[in-house]
Specification:
There is one protein chain. Helix content is 53%, strand content 13%. Strand 3 and strand 4 (43-47) form a beta hairpin. By secondary structure, the protein is an alpha+beta fold. The strands form three sheets. Strands 5-6-8-7 form a four-stranded mixed β-sheet, covered by helices on one side. Strands 1-2 form a two-stranded antiparallel ribbon. Strands 3-4 form a two-stranded antiparallel sheet. The model has no long low-confidence stretch (mean pLDDT 86). The relative contact order is 0.09. It is flat, with a radius of gyration of 23 Å. It folds into three domains: 7-47, no CATH class; 56-119, no CATH class; 127-289, Methane Monooxygenase Hydroxylase, Chain G, domain 1, CATH 1.20.58. The protein is built from nine helices and eight strands.
């Protein structure tokens, strides 16, 4: 960290930008910079970059396997492009494609014979808020599983959680590709990405449980509630909060995998342990930054 003196002329306060930083970003007397104030009171000075315009992507493929095409469509969707067009070599049964996980929740996707298109895909710029929304939806889904096991509603929650994860990916990739300034720093985007990935994995196994697992669901709800609090207060995240979260996650006992039910519960436990490790890494990063 470099400490610089504040200069004052009349009622104006100013400081000189580091010469090396100006040289690196080609800052001259005609350049502009953007200034953003963070919630902790710090100022972020960024070189003003002419925003790149998202491009139109056109792909021609010979693949006809729905699962593979699904992955390609999702990859196109989460990347920062204005629109995309995928042309297939031959017609396929699109009902099989639409049944693929994650695809049905994507808006603006149009399928017609041998062509898949997307125009005017939404843009998102706040992955931290999306992660908060994701944890809230998981809590709500658990409550439904505990009190009124409505399979259709639970599956709707899963679709929304999957979509939140994709929007987080889209937001982070856009921020890194176009160097847009968000409330989160680059290192924060890294941790947000890891947490959202493991939350989605956990939910994939959570929906397989029955409403009879009340004690286990209560444990998970308590942990996710704690996680939501941490995500909503990342500015004050520290090693003490992380250690408390580790203790909560570690209270879930190991499950000896004997059947699908025990396998799902063990996978949920492992996902939460991984999230606890990420939270700890993030907390130490925050401690270093202070």
């Amino acid at each position: 960290m470099e400490i610089r003196n504040i200069q004052k002329t009349g009622d104006m306060h100013y400081l000189y930008l580091p010469t090396s930083w100006c040289r690196e970003h080609k800052i001259s007397s005609k350049s502009k910079v953007s200034i953003e104030q963070s919630s902790d009171g710090s100022l972020l000075v960024s070189p003003h970059i002419t925003e790149k315009k998202p491009k139109h992507l056109k792909l021609n493929i010979a693949e006809d396997e729905p699962e593979i095409i699904n992955k390609l469509v999702v990859a196109c969707y989460i990347n920062p492009i204005a629109s995309f067009e995928i042309n297939l070599e031959k017609e396929m049964d699109f009902t099989k494609l639409l049944n693929q996980k994650r695809l049905i929740s994507l808006e603006s996707i149009e399928i017609d014979k041998k062509q898949i298109t997307c125009h005017g895909a939404i843009t998102v710029s706040d992955p931290e808020s999306l992660l908060k929304t994701m944890t809230k939806k998981i809590k709500n889904m658990i409550v439904v599983m505990q009190k009124n096991y409505d399979r259709e509603l639970i599956e709707r929650y899963e679709d929304e959680i999957d979509r939140s994860k994709m929007l987080i990916d889209k937001s982070i990739i856009s921020s890194l590709s176009f160097e847009r300034t968000t409330h989160a720093k680059t290192i924060d985007l890294y941790y947000i990405s890891l947490i959202s990935k493991d939350l989605e994995r956990m939910v994939d196994h959570l929906i397989c449980l029955s409403g009879k697992e009340l004690d286990f669901l209560a444990q998970i709800h308590e942990i996710i509630d704690n996680l939501q609090f941490i995500i909503e207060n990342t500015n004050t995240l520290n090693n003490k909060a992380a250690l408390q979260f580790i203790k909560k996650a570690s209270k879930i006992k190991n499950f000896e995998v004997k059947d699908i039910r025990s396998y799902d519960k063990e996978r949920i436990r492992l996902s939460l342990i991984t999230i606890a490790e990420v939270i700890t890494d993030w907390a130490i990063t925050k401690d270093i930054e202070k």
